[in-house]
Amino acid sequence: MTARLLDGTATAKIVKNSLRTRVAALAARGVTPGLGTLLVGEDPASRSYVTGKHRDCAEVGVASVSVELPVTATFEEIADAVRRLNADPAVTGFIVQLPLPPGIDENAILELIDPAKDADGLHPTNLGRLVLGVDPSRVAPSPLPCTPRGIIELSLTHGIDFAGARVTVIGRGTTVGRPLGLLLTRKGIDATVTLVHSRTADIAAEVRRADVVVAALGKPHFVRPEWIRPGAAVLDVGVTRVGTTPSGRAKLAGDIDPAVAEVAAWLSPNPGGVGPMTRAMLVTNVVELAETAVETTAERIR
What we know:
Rossmann fold
């Protein structure tokens, strides 16, 4: 068996094509959605991620606001930048690119973000609504976490049905593992989720039971082919730098051993799988925030 690819690049293009139409509709009403980014320091990976996010915005007609601070920025200087983005009417939603420099309390900075401008969907208020199962359409507004949302969108687009499926998520981080478990168990998705981590007694045994495996721990080629049930869908989220190419570019590896392709029915490439979907969902969140604001204004007028 050779796994079929869960092509995130192609699926993200479909999402962005749809977003262009929605952005055009907003433009007809005099509204231009805007994504803000706050980058602190010169980390090459972070800069690359931010550049990719602004490129995606440009492709669909979403405006960009970029704020950059030196690695020497103090907590208060970073906090002040967050407050300015909260107040900027040109910014529909924004992100603080992580990691922040050593010594900066990341959680304290993230909590300063206006939940209504939380493009990543990771503010405690929005995560709390996810825990409570609050319908996003009934609270204004409540963005969903980008990577978990992208994983589900990528899978559904390729015909993977989560209803009643056993899903094993490797990794319990707040960016992917924990919110993904919450999203997968919502009514309408209806998966049965096992969340495994470094203290799980037998990770391999848990993975072998799964119809769908999501690896998000950041350990190169951690998931072995013998762990995978034949016919399972496998999504590779983790990215680790494992050296440099002859041209000097970073050489990256995912969490899934490439030999898994000979066992699984579906496999997301890395890069080109979940990454493009994460960025597409970020832009989707910004557009949805703009649409919510327009509808809220229209309701007030009526």
